[in-house]
Amino acid sequence: MRKTIGYTVESIGYVVGAQGLVSFASQTLFGTEWGWLHKVVDLPSAAYLGITVAGLALVVVGVKTRKAPDRQPVA
Q1: Sign of the CA dihedral with 10 first, then 15, 16, and 20 last
Q2: Whole-structure pTM over 0.85, yes or no?
Q3: What does DSSP assign to residue 70?
Q4: How far apart are CA 71 and CA 58, in angstroms?
Q5: What is the C-alpha separation between 64 and 75, in angstroms, rounded?
C-alpha cells in the first residue's frame, strides 16, 4: 500500500511541478500563457515558481514514502 501511495503522490508532484514550471517560463520569458494552470488561477510569475517547488516537494515525499520499509506487525 505504501508503494501505491508513494507512486500516486510522486505522479501528482510531477504534473504540478511541470505545470508550474511551464507557466512560470511562459509568463517570464515569452509574456504568454502556456499549459492549463493559468486557466484555473491567474497568478504572478513568482507564485508559479512556488507551485513548481511544491510539485518538487510532492515528488520527494512520494519517493521517500515509496522507499520507506514496510512495517511488519508483531504477532
Answers
A1: positive
A2: no
A3: P
A4: 22
A5: 27
Q: Could you report the per-residue pLDDT of 12-38, keeping only the tens digit for each?
A: 999 999 999 999 999 999 888 888 887
Neighbours of 74 (CB within 10 A): 4
65: its cell numbers = 514514502
Q: Residue 62 in contact with residue 18, Cβ under 8 Å? A: no
Report the candidate in 55, 3, 50 with the shortest Cα–Cα distance to residue 24: 50
User: How far is 23 from 54, CA to CA, in rounded Å?
Assistant: 14
